[in-house]
Design goal:
This is EAL domain-containing protein. It comes from Keguizhuia sedimenti. By secondary structure, the protein is of the alpha/beta class. The chain has helices at about 15-35, 80-85, 85-110, 120-125, 130-140, 155, 160-175, 190-195, 205-210, 215-230, 240-250, 265-270; strands at about 40-50, 55-65, 70, 115-120, 145-150, 175-180, 200, 235, 255. It has an eight-stranded mixed beta barrel. β6, α8 and β7 form a beta-alpha-beta unit. α3 (about 85-110) runs parallel beside α5 (about 130-140). The termini are far apart. The protein binds ligand C2E and magnesium ion (3 copies). One magnesium ion binds near residues 59, 118, 150 and 180.
Length: about 280
């Protein structure tokens, strides 16, 4: 058996290690199959303007419609996609689906809102994200005003020439650029500002700390003030209570997103969001 351990008791081919290898290989095969057979679906979660209660944009969040496991969350497969180089294909499929969805919605609704697409750091560094996005937008007739990109703070940490160039090219295209999960990395606001980001999405970890301690509130207020003074809008991620919303409103946060307002929705359910889906419960 693979479990034949040496006398020292340390065995490389430990059964769980072997199982992990096999299942990892299996998962990679399944992921490849999923991309070949169009098993990825995109859900949409609204971001709401805190002052008016209206939806200002939607975030596209990928899910794997697995034939036996049901809907699988991205945390289960994004890192595998990154490690195996499949992330560029995955990202391209999400871009394609979002553009197709926007084209469909523009035929069927009056007021379109922009959609934000998450871009992985590795896709950003290795792929030809600018070409892929611009050709897809052209093909579906989607104006830049309807596209936002969410780029995690960790991408900026590897502030390579490539990343800076890609960001500048995207800026020229006119798409909106957001920093995702702000506060989880160590980038400075001035660094983000020099790259001309439009929006700062403050990580859920900071939202969770609101009203729990004085420090939690001071941190959030300070981030909002600094972002505003640099001309960036602020979105609070992971808002789950009305109490948090009241506090964020008092702090002049611009937008909120979270389960209190809406879970990510399948496209058919997200459609009513488009003619300015209004959330009176937060007013
Ligand atoms: P993210 O971009 O920061 O997205 C926010 C995540 O928090 C989403 O999880 C969302 O469902 C969840 N969330 C929203 N509101 C709340 C709340 O009130 N409470 C809590 N506890 N969670 C909330 P999801 O959809 O599982 O996505 C996880 C991460 O996977 C995303 O984090 C993003 O980094 C990545 N991801 C999702 N879709 C894509 C994609 O199409 N491409 C790439 N490269 N990454 C993606
Ligand atoms: Mg995001
Ligand atoms: Mg985020
Ligand atoms: Mg996050």
């Amino acid at each position: 058996s693979v479990k034949a351990a040496g006398k020292c008791g340390y065995h490389f081919f430990d059964e769980s290690f072997y199982d992990a290898l096999v299942s990892r290989h299996q998962r990679e095969k399944e992921l490849r199959y999923a991309l070949d057979h169009d098993q990825m679906v995109v859900f949409y979660q609204p971001k709401v303007d805190i002052a008016t209660g209206t939806t200002s944009s939607l975030e596209a969040l990928v899910r794997w419609a697995h034939p036996t496991q049901g809907i699988v969350a991205p945390n289960e497969f994004i890192s595998l996609a990154q490690e195996t180089g499949l992330i560029a294909r995955l990202g391209e499929q999400v871009i394609e689906k979002v553009c197709a969805q926007l084209a469909y919605w523009s035929e069927h609704t009056q007021q379109l809102v922009p959609v934000a697409i998450n871009i992985s750091p590795t896709h950003f560094q290795n792929g030809n994200i600018v070409e892929v996005l611009s050709s897809c937008m052209k093909r579906y007739g989607i104006p830049a005003s309807l596209i936002e990109l969410e780029i995690t703070e960790s991408t900026m940490l590897e502030n390579t020439e490539e990343v800076t160039q890609a960001i500048n090219a995207l800026r020229k295209m006119g798409v909106t650029l957001s920093v995702d999960d702000f506060g989880t990395g160590y980038s400075s606001l001035s660094q983000l500002h020099s790259l001309n980001f439009d929006v700062l999405k403050v990580d859920r970890a900071f939202t969770v700390r609101l009203n729990r301690s004085k420090d939690g509130n001071i941190l959030f207020t300070t981030i909002i003030k600094m972002a505003h003074s640099l001309g960036m809008r602020v979105v609070a991620e992971g808002v789950e209570t009305l109490e948090q919303i009241k506090t964020l409103k008092a702090m002049q946060c611009d937008e909120i997103q979270g389960f209190y307002i809406s879970q990510p929705l399948p496209p058919a359910d997200a459609q009513p969001v488009l003619p300015k889906w209004f959330f009176p419960s937060i007013m």
